[in-house]
Amino acid sequence: MNIVLIVVIAIVVVLVIAGIALYNNLVKLRNMVDNAWAQIDVQLQRRLDLIPNVVETVKGYATHERGTLDEVTEARAAVANASTPAGKMGADNMLTGALKNLFAVAEAYPDLKANANFQQLQAELSATEDKISYMRQSYNDTVMKYNTAIQTFPAVLFAGMMGFSQRESFDAVAGSDVAPRVQF
């Protein structure tokens, strides 16, 4: 009888340890997803901080491009006002398109392209765009690991009960692979 009791206790201990390890792994992965999103959010904020300076610089040269400038300003406000990751993803895709249009307009103004302030701002925005792109990729990789972990056995049996739910990837907006067309 003693041996049976010891075996049962050992099995229960192993199951408890496995459950704790499973839960801790899911928490770690969820936190990694949250951190990856926070890194995107930091870069989005950096871009939002740079945009007013770019718009003001362009205004001095391209006064008749009011529609493009308004589009950038509205898209920036949409990103700033979005409260959910999904909302920010959608608004960010709109802002990316508006910035492409803005820089396409800037190409038509040689004096603006030669302006040192504009060149610096454009370089900073370009570097920030690269960081955002990298962070999106990192976020999507982290989301994939997390979603895979909660959808595979044995976690799939307990993940929902423990409050772990699937996360959305950061998807590109349709048509973002097409260069903007600017007509004068």
Annotation, overall tally of beta strands: 0
| Class by SSE composition | mainly alpha
Distance between the termini: 91 Å
| Strand residue content | under 5%
- Portion of residues in helices? over 70%
Would you identify the regions where 5 or more consecutive residues have pLDDT less than 50? 174-184
Largest sheet: none
What is the average per-residue confidence, as pLDDT, rounded to a whole number? Answer: 83
Shape: rod-shaped
Cα radius of gyration in angstroms: 24 Å
Helix count, per DSSP?
Answer: 6
In N-to-C order, the SSE pattern is: HHHHHH
Summarize the structure in words.
By secondary structure, this protein is mostly helical. 77% of the residues lie in helices and 0% in strands. The chain contains six helices and no strands. Helix 1 (2-59) runs antiparallel to helix 5 and helix 2 (66-81) runs antiparallel to helix 3 (85-106). The longest helix has 58 residues, at 2-59. The protein is rod-shaped. The chain starts with a helix and ends in a 26-residue tail after the last helix. The model is unreliable at 174-184 (pLDDT under 50).
